[in-house]
């Protein structure tokens, strides 16, 4: 299940357009889990931004760092929140708060807890990050043997970023559910600033012309004992039938 519940926001840009908070903005929507193509809501949101978006001058805010070193971003905050970041070569074992381990422990031992939360937003570390976290706050919920996940994303690049975010957090939910003996439930996605970069418009218009195909199925091929034991070969995608690639340039 995908639910885009974030209120549209205003803006004015020479490099991206986003939804405008006026009467033309669509109401909040929620997709019900059905056999229909759930990605239609994602495509409808892209179409709305292209049709009604306001231009906004903005930059991603990327800083200059060693190639491959993003600073204390997502993974560091998930596993070492509060530790002092040196560089990508430092061993941080045992340092900071392992939020991911805490999430899994709560799901296993206190599944009704309303604080099964993982945050990548650490104000102390923001100046040292290549880019402040876009997908920044995630909460897990257990009900009837299923694990659901709700993600708040402050900023969403609808062309390149959001599809990857949907896939990666859905995969994370599958993985956590697997090691906790649960089934994957729903993925709810809330966007704060949903935008389309101007150099993505033609590519996304081409994507909008395509009829969505049935979703593939994800299979975990063995019993994996813990979250750190997953390997690439543990995953199998069944029934994946993609269209040819549509190339888009990453905005910097």
From TrEMBL:
It holds the Pfam family Thymidylat_synt. Residues 1-30 are annotated as: Disordered. The active site is at residue 134. It catalyses: dUMP + (6R)-5,10-methylene-5,6,7,8-tetrahydrofolate = 7,8-dihydrofolate + dTMP. InterPro entries: Thymidate_synth/dCMP_Mease, Thymidate_synth/dCMP_Mease_dom, Thymidate_synth/dCMP_Mease_sf, Thymidylate_synthase, Thymidylate_synthase_AS. It is an enzyme of class 2 (transferase). One of its GO terms (biological process) is methylation. GO terms for cellular component: cytosol; mitochondrion. Pathway: Pyrimidine metabolism; dTTP biosynthesis. Keywords: Methyltransferase, Nucleotide biosynthesis, Transferase. Its EC number is 2.1.1.45. One of its GO terms (molecular function) is thymidylate synthase activity. Residues 66-252 form the Thymidylate synthase/dCMP hydroxymethylase domain. Residues 1-24 have a biased composition (Polar residues). Catalyzes the reductive methylation of 2'-deoxyuridine 5'-monophosphate (dUMP) to thymidine 5'-monophosphate (dTMP), using the cosubstrate, 5,10- methylenetetrahydrofolate (CH2H4folate) as a 1-carbon donor and reductant and contributes to the de novo mitochondrial thymidylate biosynthesis pathway. Belongs to the thymidylate synthase family. This is Thymidylate synthase. The gene is Tyms.
